[in-house]
Design goal:
heterodimer, A: 211 residues, mainly beta, six-stranded antiparallel beta sheet, five-stranded antiparallel beta sheet, 2 helices, 13% helix, elongated, B: 125 residues, alpha+beta, three-stranded antiparallel beta sheet, 40% strand, globular
Chain lengths: 211, 125
Amino acid sequence: MVVVVAAVVAAVLGVASVALATSLTVTSQRLGAVALPVTISTTSLVSVADTGANQASPTTNTGTATTMLVESATSANQRSFVRFDLSAIPTTARVQSATLQLTMSTAPTATRTYEVDKVSAAWTETALTWSNMPAAAAATATVASGTTSGVNLTWNVTSDAQTFVANSATNFGWQIKDTSESSTTARTATFRTREWTTAAQRPTLTVIYAN
Amino acid sequence: MATRLIACILTVAALVLVPASVDARPMSPSSKALAAGTAAVTSCGTLTGVVANFTISSNTVTAVKLSNIPTTCNSGSVKVAVTNAGVSLATGGPVTVAAGAATVPVSPAAAIASVTHVRLVITGP
């Protein structure tokens, strides 16, 4: 009888044991964490040089004028040039955005597309003319002018600014021109230069950078 | 004799089962066997060389663009927090790492002037 009772108890406990059995699985997973220090700074620069070049007056310099023009006209195209001093930005900075802004005091009578091109050779504000103007790369950015005077036009020049900051390209500034020059009907825009009395309307380059 | 034996068996069974019944409650059963061990937690690579750039809108950070992530972390999952002195300003992720890079949108938008660190956590692959 004792054996039978033990068997019954064992059977009951055995069932309970099976019911309570669980498994433990340990899963290994890769985990990496880091805190990267970063500072994001903004600087707004006014041009240190700006001037225009006029095909119709190929040897005339207008470096001290308060305005510069962009014009598309047969044998009378005009281009503008600007340059900014980026030396205050650390060469290790990572440029997050760079925006060139010009105040267009007089808009063309029909909307045009204006491009900025990275200039590839040296120039000075008081010597540049149509005849000696430096070469420039293909368009960095373009913008539609619209026909409203007294507005600001902006171009995204982030990639160019990064090369200037890192000194991977020499900073010769930018050229602004009509993407379709030599129009049979003259289309002209006038922009303020750094000589303009109202500081807020001078050419500016706003750079946001991280380091 | 047989009747007494059966009665005895039933009595013993009842004694065993009754406490079990009393103990039955809606709770997790305990394992009678306990396993113990260690599991190594490693990183997919050295993360101190990761470079953080930003998508910026109206002077706020709206996304963190990570690059130079070790390629051994590809297919892993990354979460980021943009912080100021340890205080979270914005968070984002998880985003899958691909080709050593990931762009992680964060919210809310964080003022760029307040950002001092980008914390990132990569799990897997």
